[in-house]
Design brief:
- By secondary structure, the protein is an alpha+beta fold.
- The protein is built from 17 helices and 39 strands.
- The strands form 9 sheets. The chain has an 8-stranded antiparallel beta sheet with strand order 1-8-7-4-5-6-3-2, covered by helices on one side. Strands 17-20-23-27-28-29-30-31 form an 8-stranded parallel beta barrel, surrounded by 5 helices.
- A hairpin with a 2-residue loop joins strand 7 (106-112) and strand 8.
- Among the domains are: 3-121, Immunoglobulin-like (Sandwich), CATH 2.60.40; 131-244, Immunoglobulin-like, CATH 2.60.40.10; 646-756, Golgi alpha-mannosidase II (Immunoglobulin-like, Sandwich), CATH 2.60.40.1180.
- Helix 8 runs parallel beside helix 10 (460-476).
- The N and C termini lie far apart (80 Å).
Length: 757
């Protein structure tokens, strides 16, 4: 960057001191008609390149510069070594111009009251964006949109600077404002590329770290609020709202080994155990949120020590309102500045991969907030959203819904998905609120929604978009996964698009979560009447590839913490939670648990404070931590507990109908693996001599008992396991006679060595 700093009163060349408009301005070769100067002075110039920069005329080359407030402008040779011309002040509003000798490159030296700035003329660079790229964007299929739009550092004709480009097809004029021009919308009007409705300008000798926005005038001549860049790679930390020119993401990735094998680690037959985190409230230092580097030092180590395979972050794309937890983002390409810059996030992902942890981020492509600096009526029209409120406004969240039927909007959102997966090596996207995308009448009363072209409630455009993004992710990002938060019975969420499905890798099992939590919150004496709440999930367990998710949504807004949901006194609450976690970890489906549940936080989650880490080492809470660590280890180490997560042959009911005793038992199995039997007693009464049929004779070792003293239980159990007896039960010739501790789960594995003995 070539900047000559100065102070008021710095000596100036005589040619640029106290300049006055030249006499007979209309006769000056660089003069413009009044309407043209008015357009420049009012920041309403639709075609600045027709007025500014170099122009060949019969008199020679004319150079014009619009620099309101400048004391003078000189033309320097390309090396900046000498002045070759001084521009006259043609109009007092800031238009400078003159006949300039030569035809080659030149620099401008602009003299301001307290500084001088030397740079290439922004209006000396001809069209920047290739026509073929603009055509691809107009068709909605540009493969790397982040290379086309936004603020990107680059060098053009040996001039370093920043190329700005923004989609605003219905604007009458667009200017760049920022730190580099005093936020003066008159200084840098942009050029419209009509083919795609994209405005562009290259501003030399500026770079990373400078703030900027777009100043847009709509088609009716109204100035809009300054708009942040929809494709900014960095943004100011809220409550500030400017975009920031981002440095190149030149992170030296060290995760080649992880990337090569992640497809296997994220496959349906792999153990996937996800620790869901809202980073801003996970842990704080002196009341401040962790930056990415501090998070990289702490979170991967913690999650890996507990045995999780993945960390899932609530949305980290920049968002204005903290109370939205990130689910109302405005900068879908920028990691939130609350934790640092994009390079910091890259280091965080790399640290997770070094700890053998996958990284999943929440992604919200369905709606955005109506903040004036954001996407809403971006160029004065419903550009990113629907014009019709029946399609464009979300009644639950007072947000604006993306128009997924518009090609450019689809391209924009797909580019966002690829930004996280390709640029940041993120391993998966959890797609928020898929149900609200699939149904046009979602959360709408009769008469307040618009049917599709066939008169139905299905959102055909959203269906097509979801299939497209999942297909592109599968093709472009081998091994990456997508996870749908879909709360209805929409068929084929995890089926391939070519088979009529949506193409997600996994789906949150909201039905299982709601049913089982409802059961667990009941007093044990009443559970016998609601036995099916624990068993019904197996009726549809194979309809999709499921994640059993007990997420942030279940521990907020008056729902109480997971521990506090449980009935009874403090001991019973912990025992119930231990049994529930064992159910979850031994039930078919991948696992997701929101932070704080691992040590039994009592208070409901709040995004405004960190977790209650003071509880972590207290005996009752430490027992929960130990249990979760052992559950993760068993889930990871025992193929029977994960290989068949999405296969009906991986599960068998042993005891399904003992509602009187609130007992459940089932078998988990996998080809070539030792089978696992699980028995749950959901009453506070121990069950002695309880017989459960099993398919194979031998000694079944008790590998986990949630009532063990090390977890905070009564240490009731089976003295290490049980030998089968040739007594038929539950359709099997062999059976086990067990002690079922109160409010507990026991996990037994067939020991082949003992069987042979």
């Amino acid at each position: 960057m070539i900047r000559a700093a100065g102070k008021s009163g710095v000596p100036m060349p005589p040619s640029v001191i106290n300049r006055q408009p030249v006499e007979g301005a209309r006769a000056h070769p660089a003069a413009l008609d009044a309407a043209a100067v008015d357009a420049l002075a009012q920041a309403r110039c639709a075609d600045p390149f027709a007025l500014l920069g170099p122009h060949q005329t019969p008199q020679g080359r004319i150079v014009r510069v619009f620099a309101p407030g400048a004391r003078g402008v000189e033309i320097l040779d390309a090396a900046g070594a000498r002045a070759i011309a001084t521009l006259d002040l043609v109009d007092e509003r800031g238009l400078f111009g003159a006949l300039a000798p030569g035809e080659g490159a030149y620099l401008l030296r602009t003299i301001w009251p307290d500084t001088a700035f030397v740079a290439e003329d922004p209006y000396s660079f001809w069209e920047l964006l290739p026509e073929e790229d603009l055509a691809l964007f107009a068709a909605g299929c540009h493969p790397k949109l982040t290379d086309l739009l936004g603020a990107r550092e680059m060098t053009i004709a040996d001039a370093p600077g920043v190329r700005f480009s923004v989609w605003a097809p219905n604007a009458s004029s667009v200017s760049i404002v920022g730190d580099f021009n005093g936020w003066d919308r008159r200084r840098h009007p942009m050029r419209l590329r009509h083919r795609a409705g994209v405005w562009e300008l290259f501003v030399p000798r500026i770079g990373a770290g400078e703030r900027y926005k777009f100043a847009i005038v709509d088609r009716d001549g109204h100035e809009l609020p300054l708009k942040a860049d929809p494709m900014a790679f960095r943004a100011e930390a809220p409550p500030e709202t400017a975009s920031i020119i981002a440095a190149m993401l030149d992170h030296d990735w060290r995760d080649a080994g992880w990337m090569e094998c992640r497809a296997r680690k994220q496959a349906p037959d792999a153990p996937i155990s996800i620790y869901e985190v809202h980073l801003g409230s996970w842990l704080r230092r002196n009341g401040a949120e962790l930056d990415w580097d501090e998070a990289a030092r702490r979170l991967p180590t913690y999650a890996a020590a507990l045995g999780f395979t993945h960390v899932e972050l609530l949305p980290i794309a920049e968002y204005p309102f903290g109370g939205s937890w990130g689910y109302q983002p405005l900068s879908l390409f920028a990691p939130t500045a609350r934790h640092g810059d994009p390079r910091g996030f890259a280091r965080f992902v790399d640290a997770c991969h070094a700890a053998e942890l996958g990284v999943i981020v929440d992604w919200a492509p369905h709606h955005f907030p109506n903040d004036a600096h954001g996407l809403v009526r971006f160029d004065g029209t419903a550009l990113y959203e629907h014009e019709d409120a029946r399609e464009g406004l979300h009644p639950d969240w007072d947000t604006v819904i993306y128009n997924l039927g518009r090609r450019e909007v689809r391209n924009f959102l797909i580019a966002s998905a690829l930004r996280w997966l390709e640029d940041f090596h993120v391993d998966g996207l959890r797609v928020d609120a898929v149900a609200s995308m699939l149904y046009r009448d979602y959360s709408r009363a009769d008469g307040t929604w618009k049917p599709n072209e066939h008169g139905g409630r299905e959102n055909l455009e959203a269906i097509d978009f979801l299939r497209a993004v999942n297909s592109i992710v599968a093709s472009r990002c081998p091994g990456a996964i997508t996870i749908a938060e879909e709360s209805t019975a929409w068929p084929g969420v995890t089926a391939r698009p070519e088979e009529g499905g949506l193409g997600f890798s996994y789906k949150w099992n909201m039905g299982w979560m709601n049913d089982t939590l409802r059961y667990m919150q009941r007093e044990p004496v009443h559970r016998r009447w609601h036995h099916d709440e624990m068993t019904f999930g197996m009726m549809y367990a194979w309809a999709e590839k499921f994640v059993l998710a007990v997420s942030h949504d279940e521990v907020v807004h008056g729902k109480r913490s997971l521990l506090d949901k449980m009935p009874g006194d403090e001991w019973r609450k912990r025992a119930n939670l231990r049994a529930y976690l064992a159910l979850m970890w031994t039930h078919p489906g991948k696992k997701l648990l929101f932070m704080g549940a691992e040590f039994g936080q009592w208070r409901e989650w709040s995004h405004d404070r960190q977790l209650d880490w003071n509880l972590f080492d207290e005996p009752g809470h430490a027992g929960l931590v130990a249990l979760l660590r052992d559950l993760n280890a068993a889930y990871r180490d025992e193929p029977a507990l994960h290989v068949g997560d999405a296969k009906p042959e991986g599960f068998e009911w042993l005891v399904v109908d003992d509602s009187d005793n609130s007992v459940f038992a089932y078998l988990r199995k996998a080809p070539g693996a030792r089978p696992i039997a699980v028995a749950l007693n959901m009453t506070p009464e121990p069950r002695s001599f309880y017989r459960i049929g099993v398919p194979q004779a031998g000694f079944w070792k008790e590998i986990l008992n949630t009532d063990a003293a090390c977890y905070g239980g009564t240490n009731t159990g089976n003295l290490g396991g049980a030998q089968t007896r040739p007594t038929p039960a539950h359709g099997h010739a062999q059976s086990l006679e067990l002690v079922l501790p109160p409010l507990s789960a026991i996990v037994l594995r067939l020991d082949h060595a003992a069987e042979a003995a």
